Amino acid sequence: MGFIMEFAENLILRLMEDPNERDRKSRERIYDKYDKGKKFLALYNLPLRPYGFWTFERHNAQIFWDAQIS
C-alpha cells in the first residue's frame, strides 16, 4: 500500500505547476501588457494635425469669411 501512495504522491507532484515558473510567466505577461499600454498612450498623445495646421492663412481666412464657423 505504501508503494501506491508514494507513486500517487510523485505523480501528483510531477503534474503540479512550479510556483516560481507560474509567477515568472505571470510577471512577464503583466510587464508586457504594461509596456504595450505605455506605447499606446505615447502614440495616442501625438497630435493628429502637425503644428501650424490651424494657423495657416487659408484656415484663418475661411473663419474670417464664414461667420457660421465662428
From TrEMBL:
<protein>
    <submittedName>
        <fullName>Uncharacterized protein</fullName>
    </submittedName>
</protein>
<dbReference type="InterPro" id="IPR035204">
    <property type="entry name" value="NDUFB11"/>
</dbReference>
<dbReference type="GO" id="GO:0045271">
    <property type="term" value="C:respiratory chain complex I"/>
</dbReference>
<dbReference type="Pfam" id="PF17250">
    <property type="entry name" value="NDUFB11"/>
</dbReference>
